[in-house]
Structure formats: C-alpha cells, structure tokens
C-alpha cells in the first residue's frame, strides 16, 4: 500500500531541504580540509625546525665550519632565490606590490629582515658554546620577551596573572642555567640575544602579515632578501677577513650538508610564515616550545647529551609557566 493511501507524506526531499543540506555538506568538507591542512602544517613545523638545527649544529661543531654569519647569509639567499624563481616561473602576481614603495620597504620590511637575520646568526652561534638540549631550554624564556615587546609596541598590557606566569618561566630558566654542567656565558648571551630578536621579528611579522594583509608568499618575497642583505654586511666585516682556501675545501667536502641546510631553511621560513598568517605569533611560540621540548628529549635519549636533574626540574617549571601564560592570556 502506498504512503499516500495511508495518509502519510512521501519521504521525498524537497528542493528547500536540498538547498539547506548542500551548504552543510560543503561546510563539513571545508572543515575536514582545513583540519588536514593544519595537521600537515603541524607535521612540517615539528620536522623542519629540528632538522635544520641538527644540520647546522653538525656543520658548526662537527665539521668545523665556524662561520655562522656567512652560513646565515647562504641560507637566507638560498630562500630568497628559491621564492623569487618560483614567482617568476609561475607568473604569480604580488598583490601588494603597488604599496611596497621604497619608503614602505625601508620602514616596514628592512627592520623585520634585520631581526630575522639577527635571530638566525645569534641562534646558530650559540651552538658553538652550548649543547642543543640546553639551548632549547633557554628558548622557553621566549614568552617573557614576547610580553615585553608587545608592551613596547603598545599592542598588549599584561595582567597580574600573566606577569605571575612570566615570573614562573623566568624561575625555571634560571634553574636550567644553574644546572648546566658546561655553562657558557657567551653561549647564554647569544641565545638570549636570539630570543630578543625573535620576539621583535614575530610581533612585526604579525603586523605585516595580518594587519597589512600580506599573504605568506609576499612576506617571504620581501623579507628574506632584506634578511640576506643585513647578514651579508655583517659577514663581510666579521668573517670574510679570516676565510681562506681551506674554507672552500671544507664546503666542497660537505656540500650535501649545505644543500640540506638550505632546503630546510626554505621549509622553516615557509612554515613559520604560514603559522603566523593563519594563527598568531603567540601560537608560533607555543608550537616552538613544544618542538623544543621534543628536541631536548631527543638529544638526551639518542645523542648522548647530559641533562642534570636540576636542569630537568627547571625546564619543567618553565613549561608549566608557559602553560599558565597561555591560559591567562585568553
């Protein structure tokens, strides 16, 4: 017996129902796609950074290529060349090109390039004096510097709870340094200098990418050449005078590590810009802290680096403070 004969309406979707269901399906598909993209972004972020750090550490300490500024220029120039070759070959149009005047570039891009170059140079130099594990522990102080820089630019006023969390991070960082068996004041100063530069770079990059609506590719196109320029100036005055033919032989013998470093640098710059663009500078710092913690454990268990009990306690306190910092900032 038919449904109509029983007084029931046929179970047929009307055009109105279909119009409602279609956007819902599209929204669900979009949500799944965004989730997959975020997972891929996270996987790349957690991989490229540590690989770049370990490759550079190998070149600096094991190979003996103690020219961190020159190496930073190489990786920055490598990234800039790769990005611009991609733009030219694909015919990609840079939407913000009309507003990037000489004055705009000098005022907004060059400072970011300076701090990006300083971050890489100082961070790389620290591995000449510190273990990878201890260097990563010092990076836990990053949120402290983020708070200071945000306050400096008038973008955020920290609450008492945020300041308390920052105090916990500082305490943990001090304990980590106290427990380091191979403590180096030069290494600590260079790493903290790198963290200060990183804080300025993150805040200024967020302003450029989000507030001025630059996309990721445009940010890389303009920032990486600026970073390469600043680092080249430093390399010419500081390291070039002590280079000789033995330096060139060292590069020839280990060319594959230099290529790997350049490729990982492209990945790191691209992923960092993507994270800042789609989230914030704070989220980048959160992910960086998680990545640093995993790198500490990796070097302790697999690379034979010593981590004392005091260091472990101090680093745990820093991570707890960082967790509180993110809770109280919401």
UniProtKB/TrEMBL annotation:
Q: Check the record and name the Pfam families matching this protein.
A: TPT
* Location of this chain's protein in the cell: Membrane
Residue span(s) of domain Sugar phosphate transporter: 41-326
Predominant localisation class: membrane
GO cellular component: a single term:
membrane
Region of interest: Disordered: 1-25
Biased region (Basic and acidic residues) positions are: 14-25
InterPro entries to which the protein is assigned, alphabetical: Sugar_P_trans_dom, TPT_transporter
The portions of this protein that span the membrane are 35-53, 73-92, 104-122, 128-150, 162-179, 216-237, 257-275, 309-328
Please report the record's description of how this protein sits within the membrane.
Multi-pass membrane protein
UniProt keywords, alphabetically: Membrane, Transmembrane, Transmembrane helix
What protein name is recorded for this chain? Sugar phosphate transporter domain-containing protein
The lineage is: Eukaryota, Sar, Rhizaria, Cercozoa, Chlorarachniophyceae
């Amino acid at each position: 017996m038919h449904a109509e004969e029983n007084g029931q309406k046929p179970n047929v979707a009307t055009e109105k129902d279909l119009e409602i269901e279609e956007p819902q399906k599209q929204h669900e598909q979009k949500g799944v796609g965004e989730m997959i993209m975020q997972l891929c972004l996270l996987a790349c972020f957690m991989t490229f950074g540590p690989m770049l750090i370990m490759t550079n550490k190998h070149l600096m300490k094991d190979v003996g290529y103690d020219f961190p500024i020159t190496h930073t220029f190489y990786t920055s120039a490598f990234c800039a060349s790769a990005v611009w070759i991609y733009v030219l070959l694909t015919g990609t149009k840079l939407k913000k090109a009309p507003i990037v005047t000489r004055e705009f570039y000098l005022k907004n891009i060059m400072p970011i390039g300076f701090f990006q170059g300083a971050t890489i140079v100082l961070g790389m130099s620290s591995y000449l004096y510190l273990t990878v594990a201890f260097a990563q522990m010092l990076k836990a102080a990053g949120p402290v510097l983020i708070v200071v820089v945000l306050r400096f630019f008038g973008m955020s006023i920290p609450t008492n709870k945020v300041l308390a969390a920052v105090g916990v991070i500082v305490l943990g960082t001090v304990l980590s340094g106290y427990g380091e068996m191979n403590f180096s004041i030069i290494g600590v100063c260079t790493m903290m200098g790198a963290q200060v530069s990183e804080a300025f770079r993150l805040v200024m990059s967020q302003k450029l990418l989000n507030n001025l609506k630059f996309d990721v590719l445009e940010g890389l196109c303009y920032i990486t050449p600026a970073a390469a320029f600043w680092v080249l100036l430093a390399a010419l005055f500081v390291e070039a005078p002590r280079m000789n033919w033995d330096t060139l032989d060292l590069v020839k013998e280990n060319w594959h590590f230099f290529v790997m470093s350049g490729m990982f640098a492209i990945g790191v710059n691209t992923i960092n810009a993507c994270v800042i663009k789609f989230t914030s500078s704070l989220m980048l710092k959160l992910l960086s802290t998680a990545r640093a913690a995993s790198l500490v454990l990796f070097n302790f268990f697999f690379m034979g680096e010593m981590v004392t009990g005091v260091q472990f306690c101090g680093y745990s306190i820093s991570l707890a403070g960082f967790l509180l910092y993110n809770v109280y900032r919401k």
